Recover the amino acids of this structure.
């Protein structure tokens, strides 16, 4: 896109020449009240998870303030109710229950501070199946798309989330290990060369078919993976979860997206508050963040091999630098000090042996090793245990 | 011989000349000869007669008079005969065919060496009877207009042009009036006036700011012409405030009109010391801006694009240099500005909030002259000269900056930045003859910016040219025909990364054609009528790779075309000396023209890219959408006394072109958008009421004006709207309703050593977006303050003149802080940290306060010297207060911190050297 921000920044700087920048901490911000944040939805066909948290001050370095000890109840229009239990602080769950599409549900919350909150009744929607997940190689990366359709032409508004898993390797394949002050071949199931790492969507993905004659979603962008990210160098598995939304729900999510994902510079447009469908009964003026919807959920997992993507994707992204990952050697000779030297090198865990050095006729004369970050793939956050869904 | 004797007598008695015909005569003449007639009147009165027997030998007089004045008796006696008389002190001169002039003619001293001319003194030139206009230069002279008759019943129309003696330029806005009965008018911008009054003797007053007032004795027999030349006050410092406009505030029918001459503007301290037209406008009641160094201004709750800025009839789309640090108008060239806030004359239209009419001088028609100024960042030069003396003049003005030294002080990566701007004015005007005048004016302004020598560059420019032909059909009907071409465009380019090097252009062209007629129907009615037509061609954005190496995908928005036409008629009706009414109607018609592709949206759903159900393609010249409607302009004034009046007005306006900007002030990449099938024109109406009272012989002017304004289809933006290169721009804008109301108080001391004004404005501007159909509501559909809503605003502009050579000025400005939307807290949702914002514009930045000081030191005041020079010294933001310009929040180590940005955050001294030649 257009790199206008630099120009804008420049304008700001020209001003700044005769300008001064001072901390700005208005009372409205410094003493901002803390509001309840309700995240989750009423899941008809699986466990319902509602996460309760609170807004925190801007200058706070924490990321999440969980709301513990609340009573969370799903109510239907026939005075039926289902109480959720707190499985972890702020995390309230309900196992699959007798909730069905077409009925209307709402969520009631009583917090420990005896404030009471109630959502509007929302119609439970039936989410259609995901027809397929496809992709296009573009802009030096891979764009994944979801496709779906509703035979009943009813849903029209959709939201997606995804979990992604990709395979990656360390730079050096360690075939030996140093255990109990001795070198031994690494068992195949304990390889630390190949890892799998997972992530989740962190942006709001929406789509609608309102401008079409029938409720068909074709090629709705879900996730973009850049070639440089290292996620598509070997294999990539994506689990797309699909949720049907009402029109109101869709508009809420869209506004939330625009307000919180497309802002960030000085000259940004004016944002506005997004109000959802949850009200505070004890203090009607108190804003509540979040929108409760009810639906079934469908999902689809798809695996892609790196050969599926006709592009260059670097197979290894070095952690510190390639220089730091240079292979070093520890030689057995002089044998008298070998044990001491080996212990010193490997017991701290900073270095990991890679392979033996053998000379024809002399056998093993030493071992190569490198920094742990260049050898142990788990150092980059993945697991070396192959997931069950990996082909 | 008797002529000659009369002549000498005339000279000797000139100083004590006064008419004394009070003595009453009663007599009966029956076939009396001239000698008998004269003898009997001389017997009854102190008058002595001078005449030639030979001329009068054919005359016999048969009249009966009883207690009548000499004048009446003579008129009766000579009725229907070729004989004339002139009364001078106690002497009566009789002549045949030609009246003896009893006062020195204009050019008497110039022609004393020419006896033939001296003889003409006695000739009756009957001014106005041919097409030559008389030029009135002497105050005591009696100017006779029209052929003499005894019939002084009915009215006649006097027209003429008021000019400056020094430069020959016409004087616009000058008051031309008689006191008994009270009839007055003011000159139009070409100095033209037309005054219909009863036949007979009058004293014609002509007044204008900075000029010596003139009074002329006029004997009006029939329609005729009288040009008057006004002398400038010799010292520029002497009459610093609009003394000739005194009482004009009370008498003018319009309300919400502010006029500033360049002298007023130059008194107001401006940052960097250069007189700034737009910053001066900001000190007027009801005018605000979002902050320091912002290009636009807001009038009575209007947005920045709702001001029609006319520079010699050319529309200026970006009125500033350097993103608002300087206004784009060379102060050496500007003559005066007029700002219409509520009573907008029916000849203007197309914007909702105001008309800022900036006129430049026409250029000196008498001699070569000029002026120049040198400041810390800018310099300017202005040269004017006659090409044909008294007929053709040329004016050339230019201004440029050398601000790069300032930019080199910028930190690190920005100190290679370069900025430059210039503006050029060229004006030519030619007096073809008494009835036709031609004006050519051109304007060019250019701004360039580069971040680094080779990386990003940004530029914008205005180009305007107009040709005007002013024609006087007769002394009741005048017209001005104007054809013009206006252009505004900007371009941005960047090649920091060769693969993504790009250039982006935006521009707007408009061709104007208009004719404005003024018909002076009678003493009570002046009718203005005319039509105008504007053809717009707008290129909303063209994004192209900068060179062959660039991989940038080209993207071009289709050009837009539209035609905006209007017909108007208005009447300035003086019901009686106390009550005046201006009423008019303007009918505007707007056609959005092809070729164009229009997106069609699914009815009943918010306009989003996802709700486009199709597009419709229109061919070249197709009428895609037409909007039209009448606009009403009404204003009235009732004078309770000479120094007290009440005024009221009601106006409706329509606006078909909009500035799309979702930043707080006019920003580099703002674009203009024409109304189309998806974006409706804006509509506004305003009712206002004002009280005007002057005290102490008009030295103190006070006024209170209140207004209430409604705006329909004002454009506001969805959150996160992206406006550049957007193919479906209508999905990002919202039509909101607006209302604005306020009260403006003004006290002005117009004359004296200490002068200036104090104004206080209370005003609110509120918007509402409650159309669920359009998408998200803003603040739950409640009214919210507009970005430039600043309820309290206090300005003090003062000037103290110690002597003709030294004066000081002090400004003090206070206003409530601008509304902002604040991020108030943060939370985690849908996998990310998100920020919670307050209601839109729920908070305000800290209040604004600034004082400025400046000192004007003039060189000596000898009238005749090669150059006049002066120094302007001063300090901007004397108290060094750090006024917040904007606030922003950034994420630092997981915590979000707020900062406020202040521009001109310390006392800023300036110096300027000005020269006039």
């Amino acid at each position: 896109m257009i790199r206008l921000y630099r120009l804008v920044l420049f304008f700001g700087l020209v001003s700044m020449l005769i300008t001064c920048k001072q901390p700005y901490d208005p009372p409205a911000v410094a003493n901002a009240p803390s509001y309840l944040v309700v995240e989750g939805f009423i899941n008809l066909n699986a466990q319902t998870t509602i996460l309760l948290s609170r807004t925190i001050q801007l200058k706070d370095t924490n990321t999440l303030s969980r709301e513990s000890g609340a009573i969370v109840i799903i109510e239907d229009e026939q005075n039926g109710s289902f109480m959720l239990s707190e499985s972890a602080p702020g995390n309230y769950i309900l196992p699959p229950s007798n909730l069905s599409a077409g009925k209307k549900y709402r969520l009631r919350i009583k917090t420990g501070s005896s404030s009471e909150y109630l959502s509007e009744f929302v119609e439970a929607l039936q989410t259609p199946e995901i027809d397929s997940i496809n992709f296009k190689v573009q802009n030096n990366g891979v764009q994944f798309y979801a496709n779906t359709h509703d035979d009943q032409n009813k849903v029209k508004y959709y939201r997606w989330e995804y979990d992604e898993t990709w395979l990656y390797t360390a730079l050096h394949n360690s075939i030996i290990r140093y255990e109990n002050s001795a070198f031994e071949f690494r068992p195949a199931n304990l390889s630390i060369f190949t890892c799998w790492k997972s992530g989740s969507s962190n942006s709001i993905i929406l789509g609608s078919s309102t401008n079409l004659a029938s409720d068909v979603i074709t090629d709705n962008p879900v996730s973009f993976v850049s070639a440089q990210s290292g996620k598509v160098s070997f294999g990539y598995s994506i689990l797309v979860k699909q949720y049907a939304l009402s029109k109101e729900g869709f508009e809420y999510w869209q506004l939330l997206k625009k307000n919180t994902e497309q802002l960030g510079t000085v000259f940004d447009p004016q944002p506005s508050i997004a109000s959802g469908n949850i009200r505070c009964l004890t203090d009607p003026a108190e804003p509540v963040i979040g929108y409760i919807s009810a639906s079934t959920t469908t999902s689809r997992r798809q695996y892609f091999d790196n050969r599926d993507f006709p592009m260059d994707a670097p197979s290894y992204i070095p952690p510190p630098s390639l220089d730091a990952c240079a292979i070093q050697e520890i030689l057995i000779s002089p044998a008298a000090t070998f044990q001491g030297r080996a212990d010193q090198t490997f017991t701290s865990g900073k270095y990991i042996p890679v392979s033996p050095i053998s000379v024809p006729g002399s056998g093993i004369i030493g071992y190569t090793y490198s920094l742990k970050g260049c050898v142990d793939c788990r150092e980059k956050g993945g697991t070396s245990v192959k997931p069950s869904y990996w082909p | 011989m008797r002529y000659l004797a009369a002549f000498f007598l005339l000279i000797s008695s000139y100083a004590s000349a006064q008419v004394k015909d009070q003595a009453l005569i009663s007599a009966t003449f029956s076939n009396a000869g001239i000698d008998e007639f004269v003898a009997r009147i001389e017997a009854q009165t102190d008058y002595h007669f001078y005449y030639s027997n030979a001329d009068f030998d054919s005359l016999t007089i048969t009249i009966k008079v009883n207690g009548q004045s000499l004048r009446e008796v003579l008129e009766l006696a000579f009725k229907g005969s070729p004989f004339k008389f002139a009364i001078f002190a106690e002497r009566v001169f009789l002549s045949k065919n030609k009246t003896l002039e009893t006062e020195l003619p204009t050019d008497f001293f110039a022609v004393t060496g020419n006896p033939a001319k001296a003889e003409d003194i006695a000739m009756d030139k009957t001014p106005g009877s041919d097409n030559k206009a008389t030029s009135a230069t002497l105050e005591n002279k009696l100017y006779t207009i029209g052929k003499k008759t005894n019939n002084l019943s009915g009215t006649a129309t006097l027209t003429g042009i008021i000019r400056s003696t020094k430069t020959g330029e016409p004087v616009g806005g000058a008051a031309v009036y008689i006191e008994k009965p009270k009839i007055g008018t003011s000159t139009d911008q070409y100095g033209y006036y037309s005054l219909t009054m009863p036949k007979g003797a009058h004293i014609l007053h002509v007044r204008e700011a900075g000029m010596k007032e003139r009074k002329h004795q006029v004997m009006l027999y029939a329609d005729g012409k009288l040009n008057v030349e006004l002398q400038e006050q010799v010292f520029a410092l002497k009459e610093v405030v609009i003394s000739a406009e005194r009482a004009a505030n009370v008498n003018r029918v319009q309300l919400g009109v502010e006029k500033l001459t360049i002298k007023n503007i130059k008194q107001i301290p401006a940052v960097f010391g250069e007189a700034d037209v737009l910053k001066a406008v900001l000190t007027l009641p009801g005018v605000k801006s979002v902050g320091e160094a912002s290009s636009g201004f807001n009038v009575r709750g209007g947005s920045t694009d709702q001001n029609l800025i006319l520079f010699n009839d050319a529309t200026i789309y970006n009125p500033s240099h350097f993103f608002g640090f300087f206004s784009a108008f060379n102060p050496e060239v500007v003559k005066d500005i007029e700002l219409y806030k509520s009573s907008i004359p029916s000849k203007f239209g197309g914007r909702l909030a105001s008309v800022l009419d900036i006129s430049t001088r026409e250029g000196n028609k008498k001699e070569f002259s000029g002026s120049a100024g040198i400041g810390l960042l800018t310099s300017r030069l202005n040269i004017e000269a006659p090409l044909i003396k008294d007929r053709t003049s040329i004016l050339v003005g230019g201004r440029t900056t050398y601000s790069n030294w300032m930019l080199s002080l910028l930190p690190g990566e920005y100190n290679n930045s370069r900025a430059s701007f210039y503006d050029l004015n060229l004006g030519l005007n030619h007096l073809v003859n008494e009835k036709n005048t031609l004006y050519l004016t051109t304007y060019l302004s250019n701004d360039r910016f580069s971040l680094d020598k080779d990386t990003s560059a940004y530029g914008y420019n205005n180009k305007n040219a107009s040709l005007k032909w002013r024609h006087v059909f007769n002394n009741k009907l005048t017209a001005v025909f104007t054809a013009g071409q206006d252009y505004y465009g900007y371009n941005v380019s960047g090649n920091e990364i060769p693969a993504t090097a790009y250039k982006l252009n935006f521009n707007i062209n408009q061709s104007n054609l208009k004719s404005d007629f003024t018909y002076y129907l009678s003493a009570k009615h002046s009718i203005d009528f005319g039509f105008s037509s504007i053809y717009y061609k707008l290129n909303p954005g063209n994004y192209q790779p900068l060179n062959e190496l660039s991989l940038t995908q080209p993207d071009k928005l289709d050009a837009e075309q539209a035609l905006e036409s209007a017909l108007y008629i208005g009447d300035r009706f003086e019901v009686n000396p106390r009550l005046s009414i201006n009423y008019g109607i303007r009918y505007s018609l707007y056609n959005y023209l092809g070729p164009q592709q229009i997106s069609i949206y699914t009815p009943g759903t918010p306009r989003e890219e996802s709700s486009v159900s199709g597009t419709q393609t229109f061919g070249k010249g197709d009428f895609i959408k037409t909007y039209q409607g009448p606009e009403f302009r009404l204003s009235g004034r009732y004078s309770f006394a000479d120094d007290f009046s009440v005024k009221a007005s009601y106006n409706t306006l329509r606006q078909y072109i909009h500035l799309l900007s979702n930043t707080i002030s006019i920003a580099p990449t703002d674009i203009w958008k024409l109304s189309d099938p998806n974006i409706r024109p804006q509509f506004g109406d305003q009712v206002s009421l004002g009280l005007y009272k002057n005290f102490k012989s008009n030295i103190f002017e006070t006024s209170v004006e209140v207004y209430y304004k409604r705006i329909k289809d004002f454009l506001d933006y969805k959150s996160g709207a992206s406006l550049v290169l957007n193919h479906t721009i209508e999905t990002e804008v919202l039509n909101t309703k607006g209302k604005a109301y306020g009260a403006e108080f003004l006290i002005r001391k117009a004359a004296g050593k200490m002068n200036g004004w104090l104004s206080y404005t209370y005003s609110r501007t509120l918007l509402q977006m409650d159309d669920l159909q359009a998408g998200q509501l803003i603040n739950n559909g409640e009214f919210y303050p507009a970005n430039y809503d600043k309820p309290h605003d206090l300005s003090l502009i003062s000037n103290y003149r110690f002597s003709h050579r030294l004066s000081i000025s002090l400004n003090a400005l206070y206003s409530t802080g601008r509304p902002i939307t604040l991020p108030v807290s943060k939370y985690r949702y849908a996998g990310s940290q998100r920020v919670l914002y307050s209601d839109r514009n729920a908070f305000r930045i800290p209040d604004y306060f600034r004082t400025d000081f400046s000192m004007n030191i003039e060189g000596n005041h000898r009238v005749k010297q090669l150059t006049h020079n002066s120094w302007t010294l001063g300090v901007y933001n004397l108290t060094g207060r750090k006024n917040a310009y904007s606030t922003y929040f950034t994420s630092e180590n997981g915590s979000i911190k707020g900062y406020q940005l202040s521009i001109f955050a310390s006392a800023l001294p300036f110096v300027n050297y000005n020269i006039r030649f």
